[in-house]
Design a protein that fits this description.
Strand content: under 5%
Number of strands: 0
Structural class: mainly alpha
Number of domains: 1
Largest sheet: none
């Protein structure tokens, strides 16, 4: 695992991965049962912070190649995701801010998309059929999911409509990541991570805007969102290894 990295970098990144897993899954296993979640809020935030730290660690250890900007954009995107988590958690001084959280996540995904497109263009992994075909498929999936999960049966408000472009933005990340994975299997983890993020946010949007409720819904969101973000952050390793082929 990560055997292409110097020992100290490898152990540090594995350690951060273990810390993230212990915080998230340990919180679920040992957390106190409630109607919506078992994972304590502060452990959720700590797990997100661990991934943000991992993102910047990947950037610092990345060699000076086309993988370096990829790592930078992923680190920025994950940091914005962490800010979004804090905004939705209500732990910031101004309290819970749903629109602020959505804005932070959306901006983070713009950086994820920039990372994928820049890297794929510079490495020749930019086949038009793979890129635009998968993008179209995921945009259609997201629009249909938004209709059934968020919009259908609701008295549409500004928030309901806001959820649509947000879902399409996340679908764009998933589409471009899938296009990259179709051209190199090293990036399957990236594509799976983006899809998990999209799924978790559709569930969250249903909860926030349409009254979607079921037992442990908060844990479903975080046990898909957390691994999704982890796979995106640790895809930097795939970017470094693929460049090493040239």
């Amino acid at each position: 695992m990560l055997d292409y990295l110097p020992d100290i970098s490898r152990y540090w990144l594995i350690g951060l991965w273990l810390l993230w897993a212990i915080l998230l899954f340990g919180g679920f296993i040992f957390g106190r049962e409630s109607e919506t979640h078992r994972i304590p809020v502060r452990l959720r935030m700590a797990s997100s912070a661990a991934l943000a730290l991992a993102g910047w660690s990947w950037f610092l250890i990345s060699p000076d190649s086309v993988a370096k900007p990829y790592a930078l954009f992923i680190a920025i995107g994950m940091t914005l995701g962490f800010i979004g988590d804090l905004a939705l958690s209500g732990l910031l001084p101004f309290g819970r801010n749903v629109m602020g959280g959505i804005a932070a996540f959306g901006l983070g995904h713009i950086f994820y998309i920039a990372a994928i497109l820049r890297y794929s263009n510079q490495t020749g992994l930019n086949d038009p059929a793979a890129r635009w075909g998968t993008l179209t498929i995921w945009l259609v999936i997201a629009a249909i999911a938004w209709y059934f999960v968020v919009f259908r049966g609701q008295a549409a408000t500004k928030l309901h409509w806001t959820a649509l472009p947000y879902a399409l933005l996340l679908a764009a990340t998933t589409g471009f990541a899938t296009g990259l994975a179709l051209q190199s299997s090293r990036f399957i983890g990236l594509a799976v991570g983006a899809a998990l993020f999209l799924f978790s946010d559709l569930v969250l949007a249903g909860e926030l805007f349409s009254g979607l409720k079921f037992k442990s819904i908060g844990d479903v969101v975080w046990l898909t969102y957390g691994p999704g973000q982890m796979l995106i952050v640790y895809s930097v390793g795939a970017a470094i290894r693929f460049v090493g082929r040239f």
